[in-house]
Amino acid sequence: MARTLSILVDGRLLDVSEGITVAAALLNAGEDAFRDSVSGRPRGPVCGMGICFECRVTIDGVRGRRACLERVSPGMRVTTRD
Amino acid sequence: MTRLRDVSVDVVVIGGGPAGIAAATRASEAGKRVLVLDEAPHLGGQIWRHLSRASLPTRAQRWLDRFDRSGAEGLTETSVVDLQDSLVLGVRWNEHVRVRAPHVVIATGARELLLPFPGWTLPNVMGVGGVQALVKSGASVAGKRVALAGAGPLVLPVAAALARAGARLVVVADRTPASRVLRFAASLAGKPGELWQGMRYRASFAGTRYRWGTRVISAAGDSRVQAATFAAGGRTWTEPVDLLGAAAGLVPNTELARLAGCEVREGVVVVDELQKTSRTGVWCAGEPTGVGGVDLALLEGEVTGLDAAGQPVPRSLLVARDAGRAYARRLDEAFRLDAVEIPAPDTIVCRCEDVPGSAFDKSWTMRQAKLYTRAGMGPCQGRVCGAALHAMFGWAPDSVRSPVVPTPVASLISTLESPDATT
Q1: Looking at B218, B247, B276, which one is the last position of a domain?
Q2: Could you report the predicted ipTM of this complex, rounded to two decimals?
């Protein structure tokens, strides 16, 4: 069993498995709207490999990070639909 | 704070999938100083994406272990944003890596061709390989109703992996006509290995029929996908789903090769017998030279690594590579994309800028589409809609400019300053 760590997603504390990506952590927590499109519609991960930029979120204050390319780390703060 | 690091090596490899790993390993074993740059958290590329190396197939583990032993270095979570002559610029969080290398290997893999259809922008509609990548990255699909609608050899292994991960596969569809696939399968009579592998995949989701000549035509839901509609022959039907993987095959990633000035013909990078591109000092291996799968990528990578290191390439390796290419061409022919359907006018085509299909005139070029509609001007830089518009209207891709991945201006400015400067 993988060890777990805690991250903060939109102010909500999540226990997630070590080593997984932010995208996987959010999907596993039922968060599937990662960002709002330019016309305000919810979007989530599509390509899973850093090509489409649909999964971008704010991580530790840095906007536009691709959640599918970042691994979770202890205390990481993630903001969706930012 | 942005730090700039300068690195000099003999060979820089862009992309840490099978082709890049094989190239780097061979060159490093020949005594060269080698650096591999990759965007993902681990080396391995899409096919060998993993959380723990122990979970990978034996061959993948062997190659990654051999790479480690070779002394080649890997720098992960690094996006290559520029490539000029022997200078490669990578961006890694708040660090910028400027790599000088007389030998550059482009091993940037392939992406999925994602065709627009009504509802494809809903959360939980992904690519076929997209679903696979997320599962390999730790996303759970256990108990979820999943439909796959793809094209080509990727669909079967993804379906098998999802079944193993506990997904409920409601539809597994491939838009390729059955007749064409049957002809191809018959031509494999002398290759029992591939047939056996196909059957093994098939067995692992027994109970879900593999539907040829079937595609997804729409997805529906309020704030996420809840149902998908499929079409086969004249018939359409709808299934409730929690997750939909939809794609129409693979497209080689040629942006960096084009930026470097390498000749690209019909969407693939032109290489010679030794994987050299038209640019001196630049090699290309794996999917950018034509989608061919992991076996061919490894062989092309080996040839590349040896030649970039100035070593002779054994005849047997070239023969195996050529056989792999011939097989890949037949596979490509079997699964080639026929004319694609144009979705309803209000369907969004450019997802970054929310540009609907009705905004385009098919007599345009991609450049005109960008200027008039902003399609292809968003963060993905047309990697998604550009390939779709090419399939829909035959538009050639627009020219490539650096940075090829969105990069904060401050970080680009820092690369103009003196080495090891901290801004």
Answers
A1: B247
A2: 0.97
